[in-house]
Amino acid sequence: MPRPRTAPLHPFTVLSLAAAVTATTTAAGRWWLSCAVLLGCLLLAAWARRARKLAGLAAAILLPAWGSQLLIHGMVDTTGSHVLAAAGPLRITAEGLATTGQLGLRTAVLVVAGLLCTLLIDRHDLVAAVDLSPAPPQLGYLLAATLSLLPRMADRQRAIGEAQALRGAATGTGIRGWWRRVTLRAVPLVLSSLQDSADRAAHLAARGFPAAGAHTRLRSVPDSAAQLRLRWIALACVVLGPLAVLTPTWAGLA
Question: β-strands 83-87, 90-93: how paired?
Fold first, then answer.
């Protein structure tokens, strides 16, 4: 997969900008602002050649979330006074649909912005950035282990399933066959993960992790003074943005 055009950006820059945008947008709760942020994320993903993947992942997450919000707030609302339709326990009101739309847009901003960060940031660059930062080295290793855990477990369970299929152990169709395959793969998958953890602990202990003193890093992450200033501004907006939006409401001016 080719690297996105945003590769020169430092991972912390992308994360801080996403945090500032989502915090301010969520606090504002304005539909037009949420739509503008979503459109901006899609345009940025298209520029970085990640639009199709972003749309697919966002749809897979948001469609069930929107469905549940519509069912809870839009179709069984008992507080709204403007009833649009009613049939038995179902009661669709204008207030319920408005609440569904607001929550749906806020959820969409959080999901799309978070997914965009995962698509634009290379996990190896993120781990290297944490390692180069003043953060404890254990944090970098924990982040690397977490980011690589799911792909490694997916490959391992696929290999276990193929081996069991060759032995004829993972047979059956329907729900019963699926449950049999899951139970047969669970035990070797958990045991292999525990063995992998024990091996890693021994290797890290033998190497004296965390290393004391200066040590050479094989991977560098591009950064600049302008990006550093931008990150500080974005982090300030994480706090000041919601305060600027919510202070008039708290003071009774809005």
Answer: antiparallel
Token pair belonging to 79: 């507080």
With residue 18 as reference, give the H or E element that holds it: helix 11-28
SS3 33: helix
In tens, the pLDDT along 181-191 reads 777 777 787 77
- Secondary structure of residue 171 in the 3-state scheme: coil
Whole-number Å distance between alpha carbons of 49 and 230: 24
Supply the mean pLDDT for the chain.
78
User: What residue type is 69 in one-letter code?
Assistant: Q
Of 195 and 226, more confident: 226
Query: For 45-60, what is the mean pLDDT?
Result: 89
Q: What is the pLDDT of residue 252?
A: 64
Q: Which two tokens stand for residue 117?
A: 């960060």
**The pLDDT of residue 37 is above 60:** yes
One-letter identity of residue 240: L
Q: How many CA atoms lie within 13 A of 241 on its CB side?
A: 19
Contact 127, 147 (CB under 8 A): yes
In whole angstroms, how large is the CA radius of gyration of the chain? 24
* DSSP output for 100-127: HHHHHHHHHHHHHHHHHHHHHS-HHHHH
Torsion of CA 22, 28, 32, 37, to 10 degrees: -10
CA nearest 31: which of 84, 114, 77, 99? 99
**Phi/psi of residue 67, each to 5°?**
-60, -45
